[in-house]
Amino acid sequence: MAAGEPFMIPTDCFVNGRLSARTFTAPDGSITDNAVQSLANISASKLEHQHEPPVVLSNHATAVVVQRVPVYKCRGVTAVVHRFAISASVPPTGGGSVTVDLLKNGVSILSAPVVLDDTVAAYVDVVAIITSSDLVQGDQLDVSVTAVAATAPKGVAAWLMIRGKAQ
Length: 167
Hints:
Layout lengths: L48 E3 L2 E3 L10 E7 L4 E13 L2 E12 L2 E2 L5 E4 L8 E2 L6 E3 L3 E12 L2 E11 L3
Antiparallel strand pairs: 1-11, 2-11, 3-10, 4-8, 4-9, 4-11, 5-6, 5-7, 5-10
């Protein structure tokens, strides 16, 4: 074998001791979740994070009112909104409803605000269609209750799923 040519081991190899190299490029898919030890001490900036902040818009005994609530500030380099939904522990009655929007820096990121009306049972999620899911550092998400009609629901909560990308 000439100098500089790679040395190839055509079968399994066991090293009973330390293995070191000046550089190492792991083949795609060769390092999986199971290969990372629980005490690996990997920096948080190298991991993706999933946030699911619950947003309480009214408690179980109180009807929801028009309001705007800040819920998330993108602190990492980028993030993606994967899901937005609302539900109520006490649904509206008699034609009642609530309309909720998700705003990024004051602008809706939904195809249309989510409406929870008297046809939706207690604790059932009404899921939004997200049209602009990408976030960058500094972006602010707010949940906005834009309209309440007739007998409004109580115990209204908004549910977000946000995944922050590794830096």
